[in-house]
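Protein data:
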Amino acid sequence: MATPIFREKYGLENKIKNMDSQENIVRDMQAKIILDAISIILVRPRFPENIGSAARAMKNMGIHRLIVVDGCSPLHMNAYKLASGAEDILERAEEFPDLHEAVSGMGCVVGTTSRQGKERMPLLTPEELVQKLIPISKENLIGLIFGSEKEGLTNEELFLCHHYVRVPTSMSFPSLNLAQAVMLICYELFRSPTMALALPVGLASSEQIEKMFEHMEKTLQDIGFLESDNPKRIMRTLRRFFGRTQMEERDVQILQGIWSRVDWVLRRGRGDS
């Protein structure tokens, strides 16, 4: 082993420190998904048994945050019966009256769907979704949304999502049981591969993005860009476009500044104070 004098004479100390630093950087740039960043969100679940089964599936795969939106109680006796060891997840579950409030602080929101269509494109497979979420999970909270057993998620609820995922199934019978769908997605998250990362960034929260979209829609209506009888048609396209860009806070602030400037020009043209 090299002595301290030898190291100092030949500059080995600094070289060793640099090598250690580089190894730390490489290690930081390679990661699996951060499961603690994940929340499972059940929207309008009708049966407490499915909530209990979903909680057990989550705990099997190392995911611990459960959110229930406008559904039956996670503390129902029948939910406990099916949780079988995951009662702690039921007891920590958060309840919200609407989805908008539930995802307001999240940087990435993913909607699950068994249906296809241009309003739900691009549809990712669970494996493709995991690849997208690995870098995002380093600095952001992520919500995975599952719709009710009967109707799934509405188009309005899917508009809040940045990505859409569909579990491949038989086309003759594509609908999965709610707890089964939770298990399949959580399994893919749990077994996520280690991948090289770019520098992680903090994304704008869902609440910030929704406020920007509301401002955008009002401004585009004021300049006559949106159809007066169906303004949501173009807004759906714009939501999909901006949703794919994974906007940071600075991006949202710039867009808000653009809409505010347009608003000012309009007021000035009308002679408003």
About this structure: The chain has a mean pLDDT of 86. The longest strand covers residues 38-43.
